[in-house]
């Protein structure tokens, strides 16, 4: 048995019980076949009265009940194992945190956690019972045969091992060949899906009909390659089948001749005839279930690879302080002006594993309470890393992050995180590559004091990511993500503030419309507005973190977002990663980051100290500071107003 | 080449032969042993001895043959199904059938044909013939016993599978949504990890997925119970039938040889039947898959092909769009609501507007991917006489052209371009199968993809998992295809989409350079560079809001000017 699965089964009491019942019922039912054969042989040979048929019926009845028990227990085993694995996987993925999760292919994880686990079914409810039966029943049959007829028992004893031996021989001989062919097969098998998915492109260039011919050719090649593989693969089943049926002949013919010679009596002969096939049957059953079971093993390997991947626990930054005002997410108390936090970064360095350059290098920055700071800079400069640091998705290798003078995170443990920090290959992903992996903070909910403190700190945040995720729940529940207790009126108010009420009202079921992949799809601008509404729906938040909320929006959507953001930032400290001038314009202060360092800082009237500590002297006047004077024909307000009017 | 029917018959015959050999093996062995106990002369047994040996050998060989022919037939059937599915998908269909997930499911569904044959039809035929043979044999030996056997076989082979099918079908209607819900919850947890973490909602999401898992598990347990009950009943049917056969035979005084043969053949005749109970469960899914495939094939294409196709006018073409109305669904507002547009040879027109304005729908209509509700698209050749105005040459309604022909004339860079799992060269060449190396290189250069092509290599296989090509490169590859294809009327749908600002600006500049003098329809949401095009049409909610040159539009108050000013702000970044 798969050793990780075995450990899991041992550890989970419920699973252990169900599996034990399932296996025991299977073995018992297998053994009862011996009793059944005994009775049938006795009745047919006239050794038992016809009334023994009643006993036979009873044995059959018990076998049926055992089969029932086995089936039910198998169902309970598989669902319990899958539920446990699913729970562990999801908990594990959450513990990895968003930053390190980005290194995994989420599509594959979704499949693995869903349908992928179903591959365990044939392994647990088919293969394992078959193995248990194969381990017990042939031995019991042999033992009985020894007493009935030694010669026949010897024939069975000699031929029985042929099945595994030949199976292994054929298997070994063909392993390399079949493996090579299976790889070719999976490539050919994927071709059809590839062509079907690309049909719109083929159609556009008039190549769709031509591809029909290619498909025919490829599926033909696929078929003949498959058949070549199967011709060999089925050899092992040929051996199984031949060994079983030939041994029946090998037993039956000598038994018949010895009956003729009078050296054997009919009851024993019939018993041998009935029992001999039962010695081979369990092995054949095991063999036929082997391939399906191996898929289950592969699935289990995938699952445990994720579960036993890089450990997350020691990497999580320990928040030193929860901030002075830990408040739950659900409260509807209005933000108290002036309560917005001051954030101070002191010599913070963040380094991603496998990268020579630090994502943030010795960054010192003070953000005054209520200040609106725009972070600007090239893709990959470290802007998103800074946000993730404040969100607790990452821990700095050195330096400190202080909130109102209390340390939020200290240096993480060394080189934070290992492996797999491939990031994405896109040149459009902005800073998502940053999020690949590193000492990710756990989104610790109930686990440990550190987790609770993170919760408390995050209770003060509102976050609008670059690509907000819409959950497959209603619009209202999407908006009240950060404050589950919010009333519908509060949700409506938040949507109104985020300029989202207009399009929500037009949705088929308004605020009850279910979003997400299978629900209603919203445009990029509408998604951003839902995300902003989430932030509005959390009045307790006094620090606002926005990651390029207007990237990829057309001008009008952008204007709506900018207006809403301006409102949202009122009375709060805000850190906004921005590319577009309209967004930059609403900040009090512009900090430019390049190569992980603060290269310029327009400074802040509210926080004069910040200027002394950060940026080069005269940063405010440096030509590349993005907050250029408002000398264009179209100040941001004009855009906002006219766009709002047109809508 | 053997016909498909012949192959299926052969596979079925091999399966039947294997089962019958098994039946004959046990029957002859039972006869041999019980007859031998009566001490006949050896010669009386010789036929049975030969029979036992022959049946034992042939059973294995027949089984091997059955499995090979069965899989061969199944693979051929699958190939045919795929071909027919593909043929059905070639004409543009309603967008509701063309999502990536739906397409993957359709491809999975074609596997159902394999299952239907290998696990359903062929074993069922073999089981049926075996059962009938055992009953016929019984009729010769003892009709009353044969009746008992027939009754038992009917229960195990017909009633039980039918019952399982009925229950499974009803439950499948519950399991499918439960599965989908779990998948949605899991996807939310993974894709929304950052949102959940930031808002401390991770535990709630985890609990929601645990709830979905529990609901699915309960349904799966119920399904397992159904299977277990059916298996239990199958075992009972087999055992009780054998006991009944023996009882009837002994009552009738059939003698030990006949009784043993009857009992053992009855026992074995159930063996191919019992797996049919489990197969019935699987067949429920198979029939659903086949039904879905039939539905796809039955869906009429989005556009009707002309009965008598017209010829394309010769010479440089003028495209006239007049009062075009396109509606994606009867209960929805029109995506295009009376749009008119003229594209004379060499003229470049840009379509701008917010997302959802109908820009891409207009291109789809031009490419004959959607059928207009009203209005007309006309193609006309150059003027023959001296009549003024465009389109006075021979004109043809686009609907009178085969849709392939429409796309030969008007195509280019479409929405959601796709990278095939093929070499970079082949991915490009599909837009110009006859193009030489020089033409390929030229298209790549003009799409600003040359550096990347050199770095990646022309023969590198792209598209595996879609990770080898980034969004920006994909867009440029699509542009290179469009330039290579060089259609009479070039359509470009958001060519600078997914590019960073700098590259996008450079690309647009190159593009406007490369299309000078070509008939081009450009859909974009970026206004930079549009000074160069001959006309700009602003669409909103399917209607033309504004039209004119860049200069005119910037001078007039309205959407375009707002957008332009907002972009001017961008330019400062």
Short description:
The complex is a heterodimer of chains A (647) and B (573). Chain A is α/β, with parallel strands linked by helices and 647 residues long.
Structural class of chain B: alpha/beta
Q: If strands are numbered along the chain, what order do they take across the biggest sheet of chain A?
A: 6-7-8-3-9-10
- SSE order of chain B in H/E notation? HHHHHHHHEEEHEEHEHHHHEHEEEHH
Number of strands of chain B: 10
Spans of chain A of at least 5 consecutive residues whose pLDDT stays below 50 are 311-338, 410-447, 605-647
Q: Which strand order do you get reading across the main beta sheet of chain B?
A: 6-7-8-3-9-10
Output the CATH class name of the largest domain in chain B: Mainly Alpha
Characteristics:
heterodimer; A: 647 residues; alpha/beta; Rossmann fold; 3 domains; 6-stranded mixed beta sheet; 4-stranded antiparallel beta sheet; 20 helices; 10 strands; 57% helix; disordered C terminus; B: 573 residues; ABC transporter transmembrane region fold; 2 domains; 17 helices
What is the element layout, followed by pairings?
The complex is a heterodimer of chains A (647) and B (573).
Chain A: H1 3-11, H2 13-44, H3 52-101, H4 106-113, H5 120-148, H6 150-159, H7 162-197, H8 199-204, H9 208-261, H10 266-307, E1 343-350, E2 360-367, E3 372-376, H11 383-391, E4 398-403, E5 406-409, H12 448-458, E6 461-464, H13 475-479, H14 488-497, H15 501-506, H16 524-536, E7 543-547, H17 555-568, E8 573-577, H18 581-585, E9 589-594, E10 597-601, H19 608-613, H20 636-646
Parallel strand pairs in A: 3-8, 3-9, 6-7, 7-8
Antiparallel strand pairs in A: 1-2, 1-4, 4-5, 9-10
Helix pairs in contact in A: 1-2, 2-3, 2-5, 2-10, 3-5, 5-6, 5-10, 6-9, 7-9, 9-10, 14-16, 16-17, 17-20
Chain B: H1 4-36, H2 42-89, H3 100-141, H4 143-191, H5 193-198, H6 202-251, H7 256-269, H8 274-298, E1 318-326, E2 336-343, E3 348-352, H9 359-366, E4 374-380, E5 395-397, H10 403-409, E6 410-413, H11 424-429, H12 437-446, H13 450-456, H14 471-485, E7 489-493, H15 501-514, E8 519-523, E9 535-540, E10 543-548, H16 550-555, H17 559-572
Helix pairs in contact in B: 1-2, 1-3, 1-7, 2-3, 2-8, 3-4, 3-7, 3-8, 4-6, 4-8, 6-7, 6-8, 12-14
């Amino acid at each position: 048995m798969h050793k990780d699965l075995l450990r899991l089964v041992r550890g989970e009491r419920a699973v252990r019980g169900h599996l034990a019942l399932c296996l025991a019922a299977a073995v018992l039912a297998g053994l009862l076949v011996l009793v059944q054969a005994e009775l049938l042989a006795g009745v047919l040979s006239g050794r038992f009265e016809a009334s023994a048929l009643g006993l036979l019926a009873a044995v059959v009845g018990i076998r049926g009940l055992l089969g029932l028990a086995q089936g039910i227990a198998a169902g309970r085993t598989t669902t319990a194992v899958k539920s446990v694995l699913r729970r562990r996987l999801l908990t594990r993925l959450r513990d990895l945190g968003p930053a390190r999760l980005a290194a995994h292919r989420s599509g594959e994880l979704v499949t693995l956690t869903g349908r992928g686990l179903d591959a365990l079914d044939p392994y647990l409810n088919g293969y394992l019972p078959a193995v248990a039966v194969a381990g017990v029943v042939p031995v019991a049959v042999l033992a009985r045969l020894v007493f009935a007829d030694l010669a026949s028992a010897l024939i069975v004893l000699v031929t029985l091992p042929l099945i595994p031996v030949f199976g292994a021989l054929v298997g070994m001989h063909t392993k390399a060949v079949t493996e090579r062919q299976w790889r070719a097969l999976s490539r050919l098998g994927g071709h059809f899906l590839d062509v079907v998915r690309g049909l719109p492109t083929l159609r556009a260039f008039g190549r769709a009909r031509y591809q029909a011919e290619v498909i025919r050719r490829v599926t033909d090649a696929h078929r003949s390659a498959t058949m070549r593989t199967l011709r060999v693969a089925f050899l092992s089943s040929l051996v199984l089948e031949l060994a079983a049926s030939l041994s029946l002949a090998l037993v039956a013919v000598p038994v018949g001749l010895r009956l003729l010679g009078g050296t054997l009596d009919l009851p024993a002969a019939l018993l041998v005839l009935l029992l001999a096939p039962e010695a081979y049957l369990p092995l054949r059953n095991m063999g036929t279930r082997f391939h399906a079971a191996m898929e289950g093993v592969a699935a289990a390997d995938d699952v445990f690879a994720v579960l036993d991947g890089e450990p997350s626990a020691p990497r999580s930054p320990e928040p030193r302080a929860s901030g002075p005002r830990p408040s739950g997410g659900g409260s509807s108390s209005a933000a108290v002006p002036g309560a917005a936090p001051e954030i101070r970064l002191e010599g913070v360095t963040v380094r991603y594993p496998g990268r020579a350059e630090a994502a943030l290098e010795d960054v010192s920055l003070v953000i005054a309470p209520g200040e609106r700071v725009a972070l600007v800079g090239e893709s990959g400069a470290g802007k998103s890393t800074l946000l993730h640091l404040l969100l607790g998705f990452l821990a700095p290798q050195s330096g400190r992050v202080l909130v109102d003078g209390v340390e939020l995170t200290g240096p993480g443990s060394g080189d934070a995180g290992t492996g797999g920090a491939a990031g994405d290959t896109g040149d459009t992903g902005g800073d998502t590559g940053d999020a690949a992996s590193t000492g990710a903070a756990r989104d610790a909910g109930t686990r440990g004091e550190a987790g609770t403190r993170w919760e408390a700190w995050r209770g003060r945040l509102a976050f609008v990511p670059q690509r907000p995720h819409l959950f497959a729940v209603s619009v209202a529940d999407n908006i009240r993500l950060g404050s589950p207790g919010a009333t519908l009126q509060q949700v409506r108010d938040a949507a109104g503030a985020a300029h989202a009420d207009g399009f929500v009202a037009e949705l088929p079921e308004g605020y009850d419309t279910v979003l997400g992949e299978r629900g209603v799809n919203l445009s990029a601008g509408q998604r951003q507005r839902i995300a902003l509404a989430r932030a509005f729906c959390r009045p307790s938040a006094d620090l606002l973190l926005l990651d390029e909320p207007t990237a990829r929006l057309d001008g009008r959507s952008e204007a709506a977002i900018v207006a809403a953001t301006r409102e949202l930032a009122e009375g709060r400290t805000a850190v906004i990663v921005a590319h577009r001038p309209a967004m930059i314009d609403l900040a009090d202060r512009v900090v430019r980051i390049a190569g992980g360092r603060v290269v310029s800082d327009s400074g802040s009237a509210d926080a004069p100290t910040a200027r002394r500590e950060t940026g080069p002297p005269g940063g405010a006047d440096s030509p590349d500071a993005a907050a250029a004077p408002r000398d264009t024909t179209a100040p941001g307000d004009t855009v906002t107003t006219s766009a709002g009017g047109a809508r | 080449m053997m016909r498909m029917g012949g192959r299926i018959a052969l596979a079925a015959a091999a399966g039947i032969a294997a089962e019958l050999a098994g039946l004959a093996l046990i029957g002859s062995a039972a006869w041999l042993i019980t007859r031998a106990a009566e001490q006949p002369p050896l010669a009386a047994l010789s036929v049975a001895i030969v029979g036992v040996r022959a049946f034992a050998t042939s059973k294995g060989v027949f089984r091997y043959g059955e499995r090979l022919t069965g899989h061969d037939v199944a693979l051929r059937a699958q190939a045919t199904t795929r071909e027919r599915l593909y043929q059905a998908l070639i004409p543009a269909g309603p967008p509701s059938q063309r999502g990536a997930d739906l397409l993957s499911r359709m491809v999975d569904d074609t596997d159902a044909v394999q299952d239907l044959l290998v696990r359903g039809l062929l074993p069922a035929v073999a089981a049926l013939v075996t059962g009938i043979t055992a009953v016929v044999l019984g009729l010769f030996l003892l009709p009353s016993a044969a009746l008992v056997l027939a009754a038992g076989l009917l229960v195990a082979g017909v009633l039980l599978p039918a019952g399982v099918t009925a229950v499974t079908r009803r439950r499948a209607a519950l399991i499918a949504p439960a599965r989908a819900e779990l998948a949605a919850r899991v996807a939310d947890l993974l894709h929304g990890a950052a949102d959940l973490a930031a808002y401390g909602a991770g535990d709630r999401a985890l609990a929601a997925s645990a709830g979905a898992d529990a609901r699915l598990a309960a349904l799966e347990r119920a399904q397992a119970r159904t299977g277990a009950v059916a298996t239990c009943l199958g075992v009972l049917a087999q055992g009780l039938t054998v006991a009944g056969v023996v009882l009837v035979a002994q009552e009738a005084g059939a003698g030990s040889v006949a009784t043993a043969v009857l009992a053992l053949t009855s026992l074995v005749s159930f063996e191919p039947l019992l797996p049919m109970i489990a197969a019935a469960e699987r067949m429920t899914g198979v029939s659903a898959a086949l039904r879905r495939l039939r539905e796809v094939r039955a869906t009429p294409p989005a556009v009707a092909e002309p009965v008598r196709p017209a010829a394309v006018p010769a010479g440089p073409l003028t495209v006239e769009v007049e009062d075009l109305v396109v509606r994606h669904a009867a209960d929805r507002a029109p995506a295009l609501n009376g749009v008119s547009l003229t594209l004379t040879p060499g003229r470049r027109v840009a379509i701008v507007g917010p997302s959802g304005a109908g820009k891409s729908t207009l291109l789809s209509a031009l490419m004959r991917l959607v059928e207009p509700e009203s209005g007309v698209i006309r193609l006309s050749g150059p003027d023959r006489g001296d009549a003024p105005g465009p389109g006075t040459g021979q004109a043809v309604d686009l609907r009178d052209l085969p849709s392939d022909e429409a796309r030969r004339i008007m195509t280019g860079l479409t929405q959601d371009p796709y990278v095939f799992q093929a070499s970079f060269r082949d991915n490009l060449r599909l837009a110009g199968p006859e193009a030489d190396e020089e033409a390929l290189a030229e298209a790549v250069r003009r799409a600003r993809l040359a550096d990347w092509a050199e770095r990646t290599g022309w023969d590198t296989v792209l598209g595996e998992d879609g990770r080898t090509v980034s969004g920006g490169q994909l867009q440029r590859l699509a542009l290179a295809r469009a330039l290579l294809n060089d259609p009479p009327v070039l359509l470009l749908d958001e060519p600078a989409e997914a590019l960073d600002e700098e590259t996008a600006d450079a690309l647009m500049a190159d593009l406007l350079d490369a299309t000078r003098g070509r008939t081009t329809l450009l859909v974009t949401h970026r206004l930079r560079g549009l000074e160069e095009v001959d006309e700009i049409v602003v669409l909103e909610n399917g209607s033309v809001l504004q039209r004119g040159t860049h200069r005119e539009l910037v001078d007039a108050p309205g959407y375009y000017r707002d957008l332009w000013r907002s972009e001017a702000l961008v330019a400062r970044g």
